[in-house]
Amino acid sequence: MIVHLPDNENRKKIMSSTRPIRALLRGLEVLHVLNSHNGATVSEVAGEIDLPRTTTYRILETLCVAGYAYRAASDDRYRLTIMVRGLSDGFDDEAWVTLIAREYMYELCQETVWPCAIATLSGNTMLVRQTTDHRSPLAVEKRGAGFRVSILSSAAGLCYLAFCPTEQRDTLMEMLAKSKEPENQAAKNKKKVYESLLETRKRGFSVWHRKRRVADETSFAVPLIVEDRLLACLSMRFASTAISEAEAIEKFVPRLRKATQDIAEEFLRQHQRDPIASQIAPRDEE
Q1: pLDDT band at 277, cuts 50/70/90?
Q2: If 0-12 CB within 10 Å is exposed, 13-18 middle and 19+ buried, where does residue 262 land?
Q3: Residue 2 contacts by C-beta under 8 Å, 6 or more apart in sequence?
Q4: Are residues 84 and 106 both part of a single domain?
Q5: pTM for this one?
Q6: Can you give the residue range of the structural domain that contains 74?
Q7: Can you give the pLDDT at residue 281?
Q8: How many Å apart are CA 11 and CA 75, to the nearest integer?
Q9: Of 281, 282, 283, 277, the residue nearest 1 (C-alpha)
Q10: SS3 at position 235
């Protein structure tokens, strides 16, 4: 699995305030070299990352002790073990795509000013993983990552339900219909919900209206699909009195779609990159 770290500019800012552990950076570089070759000798690794042979040898032997590499007796070449795969076990695709989406969401918020959010399915609710509320002066209610919204009473939830596989949709509807939570009672009227979902699929995005004390709120959400797999939903909300729904559709929906397309393309691009290389940035000059 690929971890997308900050770009070089942001990395330099981080490193200017926090002194990096150089030995760890070198260890990651060695992992990268081993991952790029079908085994490598001490000299080959040292030459590729411009380190003394003695230092390279210590790093390689440390990786062997930790269980991430081994030295083949037949040719004295070091190779990675299956334990390397375990480094990515806790980083799922939903978390990964959210990390990628962040910068695209910031750009979208800067263009439209209105807040946007990305949410993924979590049980029988939608988990909001990232928002731009803190960057939007028009976000009356500042929401942060980590809060949950109902599937049937949110644009993100309706969008997910409309575009997820049929079997998953049916299972979710059964779960919601059995729920005693007030916001899930609409699931008992399966025919009405499915008619709404069909309309959402035809339209290509979901719409949700929420009553508020100051001004009613409208939200749009579009699916983030990667190779026919629904990973998340990207949404935007705005005051209903500030802009008409028809104008908002014309203005915001194309931008939401473009953002999800860019996120999906970047997600695929990173999937095709070397797993270890994407976890480390170029080493600073000594």
Answers
A1: very low
A2: middle
A3: 88, 96, 270, 271, 273, 275, 278, 279
A4: no
A5: 0.68
A6: 8-89
A7: 45
A8: 38
A9: 277
A10: strand
**SS3 of residue 177 by DSSP:** helix
Cα three-residue angle 225-226-230, rounded to 5 degrees: 40
Distance CA 204, CA 182 (A): 27
Torsion angle defined by CA atoms of residues 198, 199, 200 and 202, in that order, rounded to the nearest 10 degrees: 90
Could you tell me which residues are beta bridge partners of residue 230?
225
Rounded CA-CA distance 142/161 in Å is 26
175, 179, 181, 183 alpha-carbon torsion, rounded to 10°: 40
Q: Side chain identity at 102, as an amino acid letter?
A: R
Q: Is 162 helix (H, G, I), strand (E, B) or coil?
A: helix
Q: pLDDT of 135-165, one tens digit each?
A: 999 988 888 888 899 999 999 999 999 999 9
Enumerate residues 6+ apart whose C-beta is below 8 A from 164. 121, 172, 230
Domain count along the chain:
2
Same domain (yes/no): 75, 109: no
For residue 3, the model assigns a pLDDT of: 40
Q: Is the CB of residue 129 less than 8 Å from the CB of residue 122?
A: no
- Find the helix or strand (DSSP H, E) in which 231 lies: strand 229-239
